[in-house]
Design a protein that fits this description.
68% of the residues lie in helices and 0% in strands. It has eight helices and no strands. Pfam families: A24_N_bact (PF06750), Peptidase_A24 (PF01478).
Length: 265
């Protein structure tokens, strides 16, 4: 029955993560006032706040003002529950799972905020980085500090290198010609990448970055071809880093070992 507990925990926390994603960028308290409709401001009743089920019963609309409720809310709840369950089946019901669930939680909240607002609150990333480093010092969490350290270095180093390449190869030369260029990445990506690396380790971070870059490029191309992205429109990199972090967590070491055997038999 442990998997049932983990699944329910994921649904409940997923609902809370929706609150965090909405309120943190706006500088609002995540505990007060209680959950309410952002349009009519009416407080959401307890029986209307049951993850996924309430959304289905209400047919995706507020009970009071009847305005549509974003599909993102049940999606976040479902994704959180799914990732929690996958974590349980992958890592088992022990202390390592606690570390993994904290990591998954931070990924969801930070990716959601970046998707909506194109910002990555450094306070959350540094908090996660601290938790990752501290738990790596404790053997029962099963992440050697050396692995955690190199994961953080690879993650932060990649983001810094990408920023420096953009800044000194493109932005500065064009600026001298009077052509303004936008930054390729915000500084929030650096601690976020470092945080991911601390939790997934060096090999996992290499795979995470590869997944993030490939999916980000494909998303951008698809958006441009389909007309959903306009020229110069910014695409937040955080959600792709988060996706890479999930892949790196669950199968990063195995994927990298398989690839190395493939290219270096």
């Amino acid at each position: 029955m442990n998997w049932v507990i983990i699944g329910l925990l994921g649904l409940i926390l997923g609902s809370f993560f929706n609150v965090c994603i909405w309120r943190i960028p706006r500088g609002q308290s995540i505990s007060y006032p209680p959950s309410h409709c952002p349009r009519c401001k009416k407080r959401i009743r307890a029986y209307d706040n049951i993850p996924i089920i309430s959304y289905l019963i209400l047919r995706g609309r507020c009970r009071d003002c009847h305005q549509p409720i974003s599909l993102r809310y049940p999606l976040i709840e479902a994704i959180t529950a799914l990732l929690f369950l996958l974590s349980y089946f992958r890592f088992g019901f022990d202390w390592q799972l606690v570390r993994v669930l904290v990591f998954i939680s931070l990924l969801i909240v930070l990716a959601g905020i970046d998707f909506d607002h194109k910002i990555l609150p450094v306070e959350l990333s540094f908090a996660g980085l601290t938790v990752g480093l501290v738990t790596a010092l404790i053997p029962m969490f099963q992440m050697p500090i050396k692995e955690a350290f190199w994961g953080a270095v690879i993650g932060a180093g990649f983001v810094f290198f990408a920023w420096a390449l953009w800044r000194f190869v493109l932005v500065r030369p064009f600026s001298r010609m009077g052509v303004k260029q936008k930054e390729a990445m915000g500084w929030g990506d650096l601690p976020f990448a470092a945080m991911i690396g601390v939790f997934v380790g060096g090999k996992g971070m290499i795979v995470a970055l590869a997944v993030a870059v490939v999916t980000g490029v494909l998303f951008g191309l698809a958006g441009r071809i389909g007309g959903r992205l306009k020229k110069g429109q910014e695409v937040p990199f955080g959600p792709f880093l988060a996706l890479g972090g999930v892949v790196g967590l669950f199968a990063g070491r195995e994927i990298l070992d398989w690839y190395l055997k493939l290219v270096m038999p």
